[in-house]
Design a protein that fits this description.
344 residues, alpha/beta, Rossmann fold, 4-stranded antiparallel beta sheet
């Protein structure tokens, strides 16, 4: 199975990840199992920015936590830096996982309200026994400066004394303190106003250029993903629909769900009739529970056939740089390849 990644050894490699959990029911509704992530595979190269798109409930956040082993996936494997994380004991996992840091959606909820900014950023350094207290303090100050916060003004404050944008900068500084190689950003700007979103996005750009960090940038905002990402992956109902270079995915989506998602993003107030089909149908959570055989998007897809009801499409190559999980991918995605072959 391909993941359409650039050449070279990946920094993070996930294979056939599944994450399911039980939901306690009642007398009227029995217990059930929710399949939040189903068979997802992806690679992230060193220094690469992979954007992850999908509507609310598509499994993006669950996938992010599974990659971090928070909790470990129900099945499948995650390799980081060539090491399989599931095989590591607790302390080994803590050390290995310091190289990949998670930035949460809610900047206030992710910070301890009783701690000062200095303590929050310094927490990531406590596992390093070689650092003295003064060295940890200097490192914390450096990280605050790197995200645009003056340590003299902000180190002694608590989260409730900061704005949402400042809190998110503190969360980023805390992540940087561990000197990570990968940041998993779970909708880090969704709770911020538009101006602050642009500032945080500019900060991510600057950190990438300065530190050569790899990002998994999760969002439902197409403009943010388009502005930051080099490759784009699209999820629906816990499954991967499409992975490929940003320009190709946005200009010529191969999966019908990707096309509808992009069309809705371009017309957010009054989506077209074709695009609005994906919102008029059952939620992804409902789809996961009822459409376990075949393609999970078939009830909403104008191109579905009988085969889509019988077989779940695997993620397979469409071109040298793209993969799609669809029995009937949109033809326009393959047109550039056909033209190149004709020219050759």
């Amino acid at each position: 199975m391909t993941t359409s990644r650039p050449a070279g050894a990946p920094l993070l490699s996930a294979r056939d990840l599944h994450q399911h959990y039980s939901v306690t029911g009642s007398a009227a509704a029995p217990n059930r199992v929710v399949h939040a992530v189903r068979g997802v595979s992806l690679d992230i190269a060193p220094g690469e920015i992979l954007g992850l798109l999908g509507e609310t409930g598509s499994g993006k956040s669950t996938l992010a936590r599974a990659l971090m082993q928070l909790p470990p996936p129900s099945s499948g494997s995650v390799h980081f830096g060539g090491v399989e994380l599931a095989r590591l004991r607790h302390q080994e996992l803590v050390r290995a996982r310091s190289g990949m840091q998670l930035i949460f959606q809610d900047p206030y909820g992710s910070l301890n309200p009783r701690w000062t900014v200095r303590a929050i950023v310094g927490e990531a350094l406590q596992a390093d026994r070689t650092l003295s207290k003064s060295a940890r303090g200097r490192r914390a100050a450096e990280c605050l400066e790197r995200v645009g916060l003056d340590p003299a003004l902000y180190a002694g404050r608590r989260p409730q004394q900061l704005s949402g944008g400042q809190c998110q900068r503190v969360a980023i500084a805390r992540a940087l303190a561990a000197a990570p190689r990968l940041l998993i950003c779970d909708e880090p700007t969704s709770s911020l106003d538009v101006l602050v979103q642009k500032q945080i996005l500019a900060l991510f750009h600057a950190l990438h250029a300065e530190l050569n960090l790899a990002y998994l940038f999760i969002s439902h905002d197409l403009s943010l993903v388009a502005a930051l990402s080099q490759r784009v992956a699209v999820m629906h109902a816990g499954q991967m629909c499409e992975i490929g270079p940003r320009a190709q995915v946005f200009e010529a989506p191969a999966h019908p769900y990707t096309a509808a998602l992009i069309e809705c993003g371009r017309q957010p107030i009054v989506p077209t009739e074709r695009a609005s089909r994906i919102f008029a149908e059952p939620s992804p959570a409902h789809v996961r529970d009822t459409l376990r055989v075949g393609c999970s998007f078939r009830a909403q897809c104008a191109f579905a056939t009988d085969r889509c009801s019988r077989e779940a499409p695997p993620l397979q190559p469409l071109t040298d740089t793209r993969s799609v999980a669809c029995h009937n991918p949109l033809m326009r995605a393959a047109e550039p390849v056909a033209r190149a072959q004709e020219t050759a």
